[in-house]
UniProtKB/TrEMBL annotation:
Entry EC number(s): 1.1.1.37
UniProt domain Lactate/malate dehydrogenase N-terminal: residue ranges: 9-149
NCBIfam families: MalateDH-SF1, PRK05442.1
Family: Belongs to the LDH/MDH superfamily. MDH type 2 family.
Active site (UniProt): 191
Residue positions binding NAD(+): 15-21, 109, 116, 133-135
Cited function: Catalyzes the reversible oxidation of malate to oxaloacetate.
Amino-acid positions noted as binding substrate in the UniProt annotation, renumbered to this chain: 96, 102, 135, 166
InterPro entries in alphabetical order: L-lactate/malate_DH (IPR001557), Lactate/malate_DH_C (IPR022383), Lactate/malate_DH_N (IPR001236), Lactate_DH/Glyco_Ohase_4_C (IPR015955), Malate_DH_type2 (IPR010945), NAD(P)-bd_dom_sf (IPR036291)
Organism, scientific name: Corynebacterium flavescens
Name by which UniProt lists this protein: Malate dehydrogenase
Any Gene Ontology biological process: tricarboxylic acid cycle
Length: 320
């Protein structure tokens, strides 16, 4: 029987020779972002020194014979990479090593996102969806969005789905319940140690001390823990969260998810900062869940992380 396919979508992945991409590209090519009815053209962007390695990744993708995978382009050129792209995963940038905070990467990585924001502004599809994974992800997304004045800021997001998934993973382990059963979980703020994993509205009954003194610091420091134990920063879990984020953005959600999006001023978060919120996706847009009453504990926890986002914005003024 003849299968019926939708139109082919163009997807760009930067940092294509890196660790995250080595997992992410296979999930995209398998149709896990747009769906099993949507063929994909993949464009892999790398720095010139890593283009050969990215060619090797492209060879392996071909050798995987994915039914949905059409063209593969490998390039170091920004116009080629982003021309007419509909979904961009901005992964390419340096990861931190032991002892560093993610914000220590601002100097090394910030400029990548001003150049890519400009190129997306100039060449991408007008409805492009952009997910920044490279750290510090929130402020890199802020930089990219500010360099794309012809696009809507809501088209630029940063990845905090990994933090959200980490909460679900910890709850599943603690309570012996499958992760899909938890609802109304959210992570506010920055993808950093200051983030605020929030169980206030979740359908879970957990000990308050465990929540405040164990779960919150465990999730907020999980990236550093992975680097310590694994020897490299998270890769497959990051790729998985990137697929979840983009899939839900495209297909919509019933329950809450965490996405870092450009703030409209909700909940006292300065307009323009890219911040993690409780969100739902509807009609191809992330919307902040409105009308939540915040306790003093929530307000203080959110404010501490927003303060860090402000200082990161201050540090990259020259790139905005
Ligand atoms: P990696 O070092 O394995 O790969 C990064 C790749 O990016 C390299 O191949 C490098 O050549 C390429 N690159 C560098 N500059 C580039 C540019 N200007 N254009 C295109 N490609 C470029 O790193 P990784 O483990 O894949 O991690 C990538 C980034 O993702 C890091 O910044 C890491 O901290 C971040 N990360 C974020 C999250 C999150 O939850 N937001 C989770 C995990 C990792
Ligand atoms: C993570 O949360 O695993 C990533 O942001 C990598 C890191 O540097 O912690």
């Amino acid at each position: 029987m003849q299968e019926s396919f939708k139109a082919t979508v163009k997807i760009t992945v930067t940092g294509a020779a890196g660790n995250i991409a080595y997992s992410l590209l296979w999930r995209i090519a398998a149709g896990e972002v747009y769906g099993k009815d949507t063929p994909v053209d993949l464009t892999l962007l790398e720095i010139p020194a890593a283009v050969k390695a990215a060619e090797g990744v492209a060879m392996e993708l071909r050798d995987s014979a994915f039914p949905l995978l059409r063209d593969i382009t490998v390039t170091a050129d920004l116009e080629t990479a982003f021309s007419k792209t509909q979904a961009a995963f901005l992964v390419g940038s340096r990861p931190r090593s032991k002892g560093m905070e993610r914000a220590d990467l601002l100097t090394a990585n910030g400029a990548i996102f001003s150049a890519q924001g400009k190129a997306i502004n100039d060449f991408a599809d007008r409805d492009v969806k952009v997910l920044v994974v490279g750290n510090p992800a929130n402020t890199n997304a802020l930089i990219a969005a500010n360099n794309a004045p012809d696009l809507d800021p809501s088209q630029f997001t940063a990845m905090m789905r990994l933090d959200h998934n980490r909460v679900l993973g910890q709850l599943a382990e603690k309570l012996g319940t499958p992760s899909a059963e938890f609802e109304k979980v959210a992570v506010w703020g920055n993808h950093s140690a200051s983030q605020f994993p929030d169980l206030t509205y979740a359908n879970v009954d957990v000990d308050h001390d465990w929540y405040v003194n164990e779960l919150i610091p465990k999730v907020a420091n999980r990236g550093a823990e992975i680097i310590e134990v694994r020897g490299h920063s998270s890769a497959a879990s990051a790729a998985s969260a990137a697929v979840d984020h983009m899939h839900d953005w495209i297909h919509g959600t019933e329950d809450w998810r965490t996405a870092a999006i450009v703030s409209d001023g909700s909940y006292g978060v300065d307009e323009g900062l890219v911040c993690g919120f409780p969100t739902v996706a509807r009609d191809g847009r992330w919307e902040i869940v409105q009308g939540l009453e915040l306790s003093e504990f929530q307000k203080e926890s959110i404010a501490a992380s927003v303060e860090e986002l402000r200082s990161e914005r201050e540090a990259v003024q020259h790139l905005l």
